[in-house]
Amino acid sequence: MSEKYVYSFGGDYTEGDAGMRDLLGGKGANLAEMIKIGVPVPPGFTITTTACIAFYDNDRSLPPGLEDQVREAMARTEATMGRKFGDRDNPLLFSVRSGARVSMPGMMDTVLNLGLNDETVQGLIKGSDNPRFAYDSYRRFIQMYGNVVMGIEGEKLEVLLEQAKKEKGVKLDTELDADDLKKLVGSLKARVKELTGNDFPEDPYDQLWGAISAVFNSWNTKRAITYRKLNGIPDHWGTAVNVQTMVFGNMGDDCATGVAFTRDPSTGEKIFYGEFLINAQGEDVVAGIRTPQPINEIGRGDSDLPSLETLMPDIYNELVEVYQKLEKHYRDMQDLEFTIERHKLWLLQTRNGKRTVKAAIKIAVDMVGEGLIDKKEAVMRVEPDKLDNLLHPTLDPKAEKELLAKGLPASPGAASGEIVFSADEAEEMKEAGHKVILVRAETSPEDINGMNAAEGILTSRGGMTSHAAVVARGMGKCCVAGCSAVVVDYDNECFKVGDRVFKKGDVITLDGSTGEVFVGRIPTITPQLTGDFATFMSWADEFRKLNVRTNADTPHDAKVARDFGAEGIGLCRTEHMFFEESRIRAVREMILADSLEGREHALAKLKPEQKKDFIGIFKAMDGLPVTIRLLDPPLHEFLPQEEDDIAELAGIMGVSVEALKERTESLHEFNPMLGHRGCRLGIAYPEIYDMQVAAIIEAACDCVKKGISVLPEIMIPLVADVNELKFLKKRSIAICDAAIKKAGIELKYMIGTMIELPRAALTADAIAEEAEFFSFGTNDLTQTTFGLSRDDAGKFLPAYIEQKIFPCDPFVSIDIDGVGALVEIGVTRGRTTRPDLKVGICGEHGGEPKSVAFCHKTGLNYVSCSPFRVPIARLAAAQAAISDI
Amino acid sequence: MSEKYVYSFGGDYTEGDAGMRDLLGGKGANLAEMIKIGVPVPPGFTITTTACIAFYDNDRSLPPGLEDQVREAMARTEATMGRKFGDRDNPLLFSVRSGARVSMPGMMDTVLNLGLNDETVQGLIKGSDNPRFAYDSYRRFIQMYGNVVMGIEGEKLEVLLEQAKKEKGVKLDTELDADDLKKLVGSLKARVKELTGNDFPEDPYDQLWGAISAVFNSWNTKRAITYRKLNGIPDHWGTAVNVQTMVFGNMGDDCATGVAFTRDPSTGEKIFYGEFLINAQGEDVVAGIRTPQPINEIGRGDSDLPSLETLMPDIYNELVEVYQKLEKHYRDMQDLEFTIERHKLWLLQTRNGKRTVKAAIKIAVDMVGEGLIDKKEAVMRVEPDKLDNLLHPTLDPKAEKELLAKGLPASPGAASGEIVFSADEAEEMKEAGHKVILVRAETSPEDINGMNAAEGILTSRGGMTSHAAVVARGMGKCCVAGCSAVVVDYDNECFKVGDRVFKKGDVITLDGSTGEVFVGRIPTITPQLTGDFATFMSWADEFRKLNVRTNADTPHDAKVARDFGAEGIGLCRTEHMFFEESRIRAVREMILADSLEGREHALAKLKPEQKKDFIGIFKAMDGLPVTIRLLDPPLHEFLPQEEDDIAELAGIMGVSVEALKERTESLHEFNPMLGHRGCRLGIAYPEIYDMQVAAIIEAACDCVKKGISVLPEIMIPLVADVNELKFLKKRSIAICDAAIKKAGIELKYMIGTMIELPRAALTADAIAEEAEFFSFGTNDLTQTTFGLSRDDAGKFLPAYIEQKIFPCDPFVSIDIDGVGALVEIGVTRGRTTRPDLKVGICGEHGGEPKSVAFCHKTGLNYVSCSPFRVPIARLAAAQAAISDI
């Protein structure tokens, strides 16, 4: 006896179930499962994926035994339906569909209305009492079968339909009547014979064998192979074939077809919600030609059409029973397709319904309340990245939009405003009450105030971790970066996209979640955080093991992040503070001083300012740890670039423009990323770090005196060797201890380091001798591990991702094989020396779900991310912890 | 009974030997060893390092039992010498010296002439018949003891000597007579009493205990502790103390003192060679006040003074016997110090003599011939780095020199020439018959022809692996790099050092082995390679396991390297070829083309040129493998920088200067080192690599047809992910196989990759799926592992090394902990996938002995280095292999 290739389903009988996905494919398993729980599904049978493999092993012929098993299953289907395949009076028709283990939408072939021929079409006329419907079904079947099974180009049969309409002088298919269609059937068959040399098969079983073989063959079309390669689906899986009774919602007024959601997919409310049409096919409901009717009174909305509840109360009640059964069984909101044929309800499909993130949260919370799922499952039900939409304004989906260009979705949210090209102008316009979009080729730290003033930022260069992107995410402000179609012309205060010119003051709209740039102003929708959100997040917090901190440089950002649930600051960058207008002059004086005294003089001016900064941040983070990174970027970043600014500064400093330029030039670096920055500055000019450390600890002491609980963590950046840390730690401890003693209070502080160079990770055991904590700076670690400058990668990284050379942008999602390997080495070696070493991550990856999962798996203590990504990180951490169990 | 703390030596009795270095210190063990082989050494005893530790354990007091053991040893010494310590007629005097396990020169204390007091000085007068000598010894002893043991500042006693001379109205110490010195002794003692409140100790044993304690105490002076920390010497080792009979070469004309080498330290010839002085102290021989006499007739040279051989033939013969014994015993050329006291020969010290590299090779080869050492030992006797001096001209050591500035010793050798400031000018001047030194702030690939034309290169910026340094080493041309004291002013064609101005045409001299820059022309000595060198290197080759290849870009360099023993090319950089005047225009056309067609058009011009290059190199390397790296640097490096050049190119290309500048600007990168270069170019513009691969293989096919044996290895640079290699390898194989088929010949070729990014090393297992060989590019790997640009590191790396934050420049000697760890990971993982993977290194480290040793240990197949370092690498590889056994 041959292997079992065919699994029947129908009525209350099924041989398969949801667990048999590998054998029956996703669709087949699901159909079986629905039957199993008593949902009325048109009966039929599934031919297994093993039959597909056997088909290929058998030189692309149906394997021995298969035909007998199909005939047997057909008999069972006929018995269930009380009708016969190929019957001339009331024939059963079938759909023949592919169904692989995982969905490969549109990749493989389908045949509908199988079983029609010149005889059975008469039966269909008789059964439906609708000759037009019968002939229309017949001509569709011939076209589809001719194309899919017999290999005729679709166009070559479609022309006959066009010809028929032309002959009759009409435009719409629906204007052809039964006779026209009958004639069309004749000419289609003749054309098939002409094109293939074969008659169109009249025997329903011949039709069936052809269709099954065609579906098997479609597993190995070029597009299917490509799709599998791109999606990592093995070629040897094969596809199943589902042969299922056709049911018709368009046989008359006791027929209907519709779609429904078991809850509102947009709000999540527990309302059965759907639309249907009397005497129609499935595609009519979504096609928008006829206006669909509400399924019930509660979901009527503005519609004045009669509902199914009113028109067919018994059927509606049956549908309600079915949906409740399905939702209970699948324990999730379902998206249903149903057809009513001659007042008989059939379910064609059920699947977990797509929903907005707001709905996802409400449904998850409600279902826990209903006892359908537990909290763990609820937490797993929301995609962390989607939370972004809850936290930022979004474009009104109903508004008309004119797309101008597309860049990188660098920071989510949406905003409209007048174009400005300089940071100063952005500030001025904002003060004058305008909303502006700052458009730059790229931004630099000098632009921060302008970025803050703008509603959104658009740059033509730079990637997902460019300055603009990082700062905008930190501010929770929308940003489209690296939009290379936008060519900025500062001199003429305009930008071009192709031939179109946009001037200062013209209005554009950005969607930072998609990277789209639109012409003109588009209304936005501001989200509201609900109680469900808080409940949901509190459940996430119950499961996660990772702490979530934030990257914040100002008391305002710190507060925002704390409100989003941040449990401390993982990265407070001190350099942004240096750019404030009141300070940049002193910063420049310090840099350009050519003696220790000169630097100390300038630093003395900066110290009270820095101290003020830290007091503000400590207050905002009362009771929570705050990691402060000492000065990191190369000094020349702080120097003026424009001629005017240089001249002005020279005047203020009392030196010549030439001297100033010379000094600036001497600070030039070929590769600033790999240059004199981070702790290398701290070692060359210890007085800078001394000032910062003193400011931190004095601020902490002041706070402690005011009853604020402070946990300062001083972080030394860009350490490559433990000796660097040793040198700086010793100085820092001396300063801290003296300040604490002087203040006469108790204060615990820690000194640790960024691990952001491969060498630091590789020698983490030595570094942990000195470091009291590690924070992985995965931005720089990615740059050095790949040898890839994020400022320059824009020229080739997009092509790399498009060509699948890199699976994704390593600056967005951590590269587990390379950068991740170093993180693991760093954690392992660091904890060899110091088993209780506190380890976190403060790169951009700290708020990206896949990276957060990696951090969980690697045993980090916390992730730190920009304020608006804190909820995302919390949820991702919870999901990682749950998946890990 | 207490532990044995004291080990005697003298006459033919010794308790110690050379193996007891840990216990007796280096000096003590060596003194014992000399006695053991019957060399006349002044007798005495060594107090062990364990006594030092016991001293510290005993609150810095001499441990119980020590004094008794000292008295016992003293008795034995007295018996050997037939004189007594503290004897009033003919007293024994002693030196008391420190002696740790390893030499810590000048770090600890010494006391000489111990045992003198008012009574014994009379005995010394009697014994020497020289009151002035006796009182001079006495006053020296008081000053030394007062300072070292009694803690009086040296200056406070020295003033009395000055006062005595002043009073007498003389200037030199030697002008004071016995009476003056006797008086001085009195006033010194009075001053000691005055300053310390204690009498100067008269009792010889009191003096001895004091001196021993002082030496023990000097183990823990601040400078000694610092020295140990810097040199990694453990604090717990302690020092031994050597108490040894004083002998005097200055007691009269039957006394003498001298130094000798058992072979000529400058040529290595087997001639006993030395100098001595009658009636003198050791320091007089080297002080240069009196002209030393030749020790024998054969080494007389130009001297007309009588030799020891003539004056004291019996003593000379004894000395010859001793030196032969010592050389045979120590199996190496010895550097002896001897004293003749009253016609009795004493050896004070023997040690392996310093020698020139030429002598080192001759001595090693001769000693193998003499059966003193075997080849293995001979190979270990020469420091690989020193070979440099054999291969390059050196400055005449006798010439007068005016040092101007000091930079980095970037490429060895010495050269003089007229200053020029541009590469073009260097070429012109060279053609006009001038010798020139090219002086630049830094060099770029555009300067290569000028560098080639110059005798030497001086740059004010850049490190040991800057462009200038790397290229100069490749050319075997001397280079001083990063000489920051030199401020170049191109506009005025001059450079300044402080206030001094040097103009074009002024002559300077460079010493690339020391980094020194001198004013004017200094004669140089051109080395000659001897037959001994060839013999010696052939022995090295017998032992080494590593192959040694060369980095060479031209047939000329390839030939030079092959003559130096290179076994193939490990790195042939194709980009240098692009800079030749005949090509740079086509290269620029290619870069600036904005279409595939445009690039292909330009590439078609370049291909025949590239093919010619490769044919030349394959010919030079007939039978040896040649690894060719495809284009690596970012394209903008090839573009013109100067306004004139840009205008010229724009003219040639028929585009506007603005357009050209815009394109150039668009190629600008923030961090070119981490930018669009290496295989990233090959992926963005596959036609470039296609052209290069075709040129390589077509050249190889042409050579094969001419009977030349070619082993081409195509190397893809800057791979971060296996997918990059996969993409490029597939294209390359197609091109190669087609070309080989077309040529109708047999040709094996390999395709491999540089491992020069941390990610490549970390994912080497995946990369080895595609790569047929690995070559570690440790220059770039060092840059990325440390996050350190070698072009910018000059600003802080020197300070790092000075402050011992880094033990050495990681661009010079491979950083074993970080970069080395990645190399090991890369090798291990690569060979997991492909066990026979050929692995080499082609960074600058390939010619640095410590790095070569690391490569040997890590199991690499070969190192590759610049031609002039090939012999160094061969020797270093041999030594690593021998050390490994």
Q: Would you kindly provide a written description of the structure presented here, covering whatever features stand out?
A:
Two copies of one chain form a homodimer. With 885 residues, chain A is α/β, with parallel strands linked by helices. Chain A is 45% helix and 18% strand. Chain A has 35 helices and 34 strands. In chain A, the strands form seven sheets. Chain A has an eight-stranded mixed beta sheet with strand order 15-25-24-17-18-19-20-16. In chain A, strands 27-28-29-30-31-32-33-34 form an eight-stranded parallel barrel, surrounded by six helices. Chain A has a six-stranded antiparallel beta sheet with strand order 2-1-3-8-6-7, with helices on both faces. In chain A, helix 20 runs parallel beside helix 23 and helix 34 crosses helix 35 (870-884). Chain A is elongated, with a radius of gyration of 34 Å. Chain A starts with 5 loop residues before the first strand and ends with a helix. The mean pLDDT of chain A is 92. At the A-B interface, helix 26, helix 28, helix 29, helix 31 and helix 33 of A face helix 26, helix 28, helix 29, helix 31 and helix 33 of B.
Q: How would you briefly describe this protein structure?
A:
Two copies of one chain form a homodimer. The first copy, chain A, is of the alpha/beta class.
